[in-house]
Amino acid sequence: MSEPRPSDRHDASQPDDTFEEIVGEETQRDPDLAVIEAGSRTLRTYAGSPQGEAVPARPTDPETDKALRAVEQELAGRWGETKLEPSVTRIAALMDVLGEPQRAYPSIHITGTNGKTSTARMIEALLNAFELRTGRYTSPHVQSITERISLDGSPIEPERFIETFEDIKPYVEMVDAQQPYRLSFFEVLTGMAYAAFADAPVDVAVVEVGMGGTWDATNVIDSTVAVVTPISLDHTDRLGTTPAEIAGEKSGIIKQGATVILAQQPVDAAQVMLKKAVEVDATVAREGMEFGVTSREVAVGGQLLTLRGLGGEYTDIFLPLYGAHQAHNAAVALSAVEAFFGIGAEQARSLDIDAIRKAFAAVVSPGRLEVVRSSPTVVLDAAHNPAGAKAAADGISEAFSFSRLIGVVGTSGDKDVRGLLEAFEPIFAEVVVTQNSTERAMDADALAAIAVEVFGDDRVQVEPRLDDALEAAITLAEEDDEYAGAGVLVTGSVITVGEARLLLGRG
After folding, report:
1. Which pTM does this prediction carry?
2. Are 463 and 430 in contact (CB under 8 A)?
3. What is the pLDDT of residues 153-169, one digit of tens each?
């Protein structure tokens, strides 16, 4: 495993020259805006292009596409991700017959309610910057099932995805025959991820839980670092009806002697996590205490950050993502990687600042305040619960100066839809309610009934087909010269965002 380099003072002579040159070129513009843009453009020079395709398209080879569809169909025939039998018995049995692939590498395990996927992507980018080979397992996917399993920052190739499924299929069938219930869709995918990581092989796996923690299928790993992103109410029918109850379930990923990176939490959730850490002799680093966001400024294409990690302060970090929540995710990710390298507890030093800047500047997080079209600007965000909606609303209000914002909302039926709509009500001039193509989608008319109660009848339009909803929202944004700066935000579900992304030509 490659060791992180001690932090050296950055020789900024060349970037400073570049900075001054850019400012000089921008003298005809607002001086403050020129300085902000120069700073973000200068920091971008530290970064290479993001690795691989964040959201891959369908395979171009017809035979490969056919084979991938066959695998998708086989997986879809199993229990879906919303039907659960709370146990790790089946996945443990699969790991046993596969030879315990999940123990072939160290891992960083991530739970929480919101921000898990973005944080996982940041952790992955940071580890890659220190020349470690990574495997990342996240869910759900935006467009392609292959997004869920990544190697070295890129989604697994379709051919390798198919091969991995075929390799473990006989063992899956063996376990199916021995258990009261067949392995679920998510359990088989988890087995595929762990097997693919061992086969690569990877130096470290970055693993996001599917739901909860204790009985989540991913929880057959013994991670040295457990990350807990902000906890709020979601999946209350399965995890509990209070933050404390949900935290109790999610605390199950904290293993004996691990380091826990704890994002800012409700007090009762934090207490549960701290109690669990004491029980298993884990070390806890808390956002706002041992690490955090020291400062941040809105910049062109993202934000400029100063982060305080476990090993010191990291300045002039450009993060090409919008919203205060992403800055906090960055602080969590940085501290998780420091903890993985033993910094803070075992070593009193910081990570190489150049590597940190390059990694963060190359981060992408599809479907998280992602701009996919201009004139008018269309933004996608996968917020699906009130806390996520509040973060998205704050982020878009801060980063964009829309004269009017039109919402396109399609949710799942098992969510706190009213809470989500209420979080968006202050920023949406009008809302077009719709539904995605899955069985979990909330009926557009049912969603409209709630939307009318929140927004009033005159601000709600119903378009059951997502393509019609997008067209209607774009038309509303374009309809009057007075609203030349209008924009559209598509939100409510990862699935809605993924389908909109395809319809808008980003697939």
Report:
1. 0.86
2. no
3. 999 999 999 999 999 99
